[in-house]
């Protein structure tokens, strides 16, 4: 996986020295599960408490895609993360937890609704989070161009995907990890959707993406479940069979 130029990897090496062409793939994600197994176990248990009564946060992400996001954040150690689409804050809390565990980084989140403000614990957000209410398309100038990690889970229309491909992606540095939700609810992305537009753009650029979607990539999904069981991470935090997210490096 590409590391953002100017940042440092876990072993202290400048990331520019580690731009070796690795992609986000099954071997890479499996290695991250093993590397961060203990930290992930603690993170999972703390996330589990957010789903317990009386608050019971409404969770959107499946365990595997939330965990992969956490693991990529742990490896990349970004200083600036952009999240477009928060809803009730399940993805927000996972991102903030990874930044806290890294000991560095700030999250900038954007959404039309502000449910997230009332749901994200202060212990996670204090000093690490800026929330902007409003349509991201109307707040483009507020999205930091120094972002070195991008998470998208907002409007799932083809038009929205065309907007961020045309307007947002060119503003960001090549090599940053990108997560896009709601792509593979089935074997293929539905036509005229965000997923179809993003997948076509990636294909045209020869830019590979990774998914553990049970619908699209059942073998990968099952192999990651095996990895999780081998690390005693098999007990679900959030019960779900739908994990349509894709992950790629912006090229």
Give a structural overview.
This protein has 251 residues and is α/β, with parallel strands linked by helices. α1 runs parallel beside α9 and α7 crosses α8 (194-205). β4, α7 (158-168) and β5 form a beta-alpha-beta unit. The protein is 38% helix and 11% strand. 43% of the residues are buried. Residues 1-21 have low confidence and may be disordered. A six-stranded mixed beta sheet has the order 3-2-1-4-5-6, with helices on one face. The longest helix has 14 residues, at 37-50. The protein has nine helices and six strands. The chain is globular and about 40 Å long.
**SSE pattern, N- to C-terminal:** HHHEHEHHEEHEHHE
Distance from N terminus to C terminus (CA atoms, Å) equals: 11 Å
According to DSSP, the number of beta strands is: 6
Helix content: 25-40%
Protein structure class: alpha/beta
Radius of gyration: 17 Å
Order of strands across the biggest sheet?
3-2-1-4-5-6
Major beta-sheet overview: 6 strands, mixed
Helix count, per DSSP? 9
What is the 3D shape?
Answer: globular
Give the mean pLDDT. Answer: 91
Q: What is the strand content?
A: 5-15%
| Low-confidence parts | 1-21
Oligomer: single chain
Keywords:
single chain, 251 residues, alpha/beta, six-stranded mixed sheet, 9 helices, 38% helix, globular
């Amino acid at each position: 996986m590409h590391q953002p130029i100017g940042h440092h990897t876990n072993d202290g090496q400048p990331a520019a020295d580690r731009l070796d062409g690795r992609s986000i793939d099954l071997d890479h994600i499996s290695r991250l599960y093993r590397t961060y197994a203990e930290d992930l176990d603690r993170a999972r248990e703390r996330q589990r408490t957010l789903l317990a009564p009386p608050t019971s946060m409404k969770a959107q992400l499946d365990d595997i895609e939330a965990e992969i996001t956490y693991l990529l954040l742990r490896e990349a150690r970004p200083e600036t993360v952009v999240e477009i689409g928060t809803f009730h804050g399940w993805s927000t809390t996972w991102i903030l937890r990874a930044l806290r565990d890294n000991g560095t980084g700030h999250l900038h989140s954007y959404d039309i609704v502000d449910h997230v403000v009332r749901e994200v614990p202060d212990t996670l957000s204090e000093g690490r989070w800026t929330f902007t209410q409003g349509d991201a398309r109307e707040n483009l100038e507020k999205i930091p161009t120094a972002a070195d990690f991008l998470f998208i889970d907002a409007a799932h229309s083809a038009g929205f995907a065309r907007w961020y491909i045309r307007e947002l992606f060119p503003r960001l540095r090549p090599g940053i990890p990108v997560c896009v939700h709601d792509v593979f609810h089935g074997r293929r992305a539905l036509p005229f959707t965000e997923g179809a537009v993003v997948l076509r753009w990636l294909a045209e650029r020869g830019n590979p993406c990774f998914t553990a979607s049970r619908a699209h990539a059942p073998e990968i999904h099952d192999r990651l479940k095996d990895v999780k069981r081998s690390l005693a991470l098999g007990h679900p935090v959030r019960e779900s069979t739908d994990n349509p997210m894709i992950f790629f490096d912006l090229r």
